[in-house]
Design a protein that fits this description.
By secondary structure, the chain is mostly beta strands. It contains 1 helix and 28 strands. The protein folds into 2 domains: about 60 residues, no CATH class; about 260 residues, YVTN repeat-like/Quinoprotein amine dehydrogenase (Methylamine Dehydrogenase, Chain H, 7 Propeller), CATH 2.130.10. It is globular and about 45 Å long.
Length: about 325
């Protein structure tokens, strides 16, 4: 028997009644029941399950998020678009950005002024959009060293870092001065660099897909190479994100976690929660971690402030997503 009840918000009494109706037993009976919170486009993981003669009951609920004006940006490789979600209602249909030279978009980053930078793998370019003015297309970056670009990120000082998988380098542009080209970063173990992130201390972390490592550079001291993170369960690393507390999240087979404030100590990895080919990672100011799953065209959401608890899986408006960012 399969039973679903759909509602935006359900209280405990309503859920209990639904379970009783679906199981055909009184509320006092100890009938094993499976409860899954889901929506057609937005799914939260099971809150508990039990089996009664291999019959299951399902109750659908949409989780409620704290209101926010921030946006979630997700690059879609399959249809050359960027999906834009309102964090206040992640289950709503996203706004779609297209055009502007998007061509197999991977990395997405937004600077302090609201400019969106999208790295185009096949065009060796970075498309630029003005999100503060209706996502107007601005002049793309198409020069100086971009070679199979993957992830990108913008530091607080306005420097745009773009990982070049084709040349084992990281291009740097000064977005505060007309995207002026700065000396690229090479060496330091770069090998098929994909994702990039800048931590609060100015350290640049680069995920290397070819040797399953994370290269580290000190941007405050001439981009000097620091000891890389290797081993420790890394396998096919493709993106990185750093939270304000110094926790580093690395997308690979799962999401590896390291404490950069304590010698890059290994913390428990994040698994489950709908992860399927994690490709991009981003974290917001509330500690919510967003993971783009390219294999099943979704974004998994976890609460890092509460033991990396899985919150929901977003599927609407996504087609083989790669990069993801919050602004």
């Amino acid at each position: 028997m399969r039973c679903k009840l759909r509602s935006r918000f359900l209280g405990a009494a309503t859920i209990a009644a639904a379970l009783t109706a679906c199981s055909g037993r009184s509320s006092g009976a100890k009938a094993p029941i499976s409860v899954t919170l889901s929506d057609a486009r937005c799914v939260t993981p099971p809150i508990g399950w039990v089996d009664r003669r291999h019959e299951y009951a399902f109750v659908s609920v949409i989780g409620k998020f704290t209101p926010s004006t921030a946006k979630l940006y997700v690059a879609n490789q399959a249809d050359n678009t960027v999906s834009v979600f309102d964090l206040a209602n992640l289950c709503a249909a996203p706004t779609m950005i297209s055009g502007g030279g998007l061509d197999d978009p991977h990395g997405v980053a937004v600077d302090a002024s609201g400019k969106l930078y999208v790295a185009n793998q096949l065009r060796n370019s970075v498309s630029v959009f003005d999100t503060a003015h209706g996502n107007v297309v601005l002049a793309a970056i198409t020069r100086d060293g971009l070679d199979f670009p993957q992830g990108d990120t913008v530091a607080p000082n306005g420097k745009l870092y773009v990982a070049n998988a084709g040349s084992n380098s990281v291009s740097i542009f000064d977005t505060t001065h007309g995207n002026a080209v700065l000396p690229a970063i090479t060496g330091g173990g770069l090998n098929g660099p994909y994702g990039v992130a800048v931590g609060g201390s100015g350290k640049l972390y680069v995920a290397n897909a070819n040797n399953s490592s994370v290269s580290i550079f000190d941007t405050a001291h001439g981009n000097a190479a620091l000891p890389a993170i290797t081993g420790k369960g890394l396998n096919g690393t493709v993106d990185v994100a750093v939270d304000p507390n110094g926790k580093l999240y690395v997308a690979n087979d799962s999401v590896s976690v390291f404490d950069t404030a304590h010698g890059n100590a290994t913390l428990p990895a994040i698994t489950g929660g709908g992860l399927s080919g994690p490709y991009g990672v981003a974290i917001d100011a509330r500690g919510k971690l967003y993971v783009a799953n390219t294999k099943n065209s979704s974004v998994s959401v976890f609460d890092t402030a509460h033991g990396n608890a899985p919150l929901m899986v977003i599927t609407r408006g996504l087609k083989h997503p790669a990069g993801v960012t919050v602004h």
